[in-house]
Write a structure and sequence with these properties.
Elements: H1 10-24, H2 36-40, H3 44-47, H4 51-60, H5 63-67, H6 71-74, H7 80-84, H8 91-104, H9 112-128, H10 133-169, H11 183-199
């Protein structure tokens, strides 16, 4: 577990805190560092940062540390942190916000494969309103190819083939393209988000 000392930065604290709270919908000011979230986080030990420490980074204005840590990429979004928090702070939503901010700032992700998985999933949702395994996997392997060529694609298929066979046996993988009835509404939400980012000068 990381034991580095966090330092307050008045220059970035208020701006960072406001942006994260506005975008995540979470009141970070209500965190009093009881560390119940840390006790339940399944990836806190291996990521070196626990949810309470991440909140503290934002409160102190440590933007670089907040956008460059393993927790925002390893977070499982299991919501154990929010369930245990006496003030109902959902750190998973904070992680998602920081992940988006890191992407917008063109910061190289700590775990590129997770970043590829994330962007491919979101792109698949934007097309049909829900994730379809075939399209999702194709988009993901295209991302792998862009970053590591055929070798990366072969290695990924080899490492996940066992899981794929198991999913097929349990009928957890579907090959038809499912569409949601509210697809146009979802597309408009994606467009609205893109327009909002464009208005702020974000990619």
């Amino acid at each position: 577990m990381s034991t580095s000392t966090l330092k307050y930065s008045a220059e970035t604290s208020n701006a960072l805190l406001k942006e994260v709270m506005d975008r995540s919908g979470q009141n970070l000011m209500s965190c009093y560092q009881c560390r119940r979230c840390a006790a339940g986080c399944p990836v806190g030990d291996e990521s070196g940062v626990t949810p309470d420490r991440l909140v503290r980074m934002v409160l102190l204005g440590e933007k670089d540390n907040a956008l460059n840590n393993l927790l925002i990429w390893k977070c499982l979004a299991c919501y154990t942190c929010g369930t245990r928090c006496p003030n109902n702070i959902q750190t998973a939503r904070i992680n998602e916000t920081l992940k988006q901010m890191a992407k917008e700032a063109h910061i190289e992700p700590n775990i590129p494969r997770v970043a590829s998985f994330h962007s491919s999933f979101v792109k698949s949702i934007s097309h049909f309103g829900r994730s379809n395994e075939l399209e999702f996997m194709a988009l993901y392997e295209i991302e792998n190819y862009k970053k590591g060529g055929l070798t990366a694609v072969k290695e990924d298929i080899k490492s996940t083939s066992k899981l794929g066979r198991s999913m097929l046996k349990k009928k957890r993988m579907h090959f038809k393209l499912d569409r949601t009835k509210g697809k146009s509404e979802i597309k408009s939400l994606f467009k609205k988000a893109a327009d909002k980012r464009g208005a702020k000068g974000q990619p």
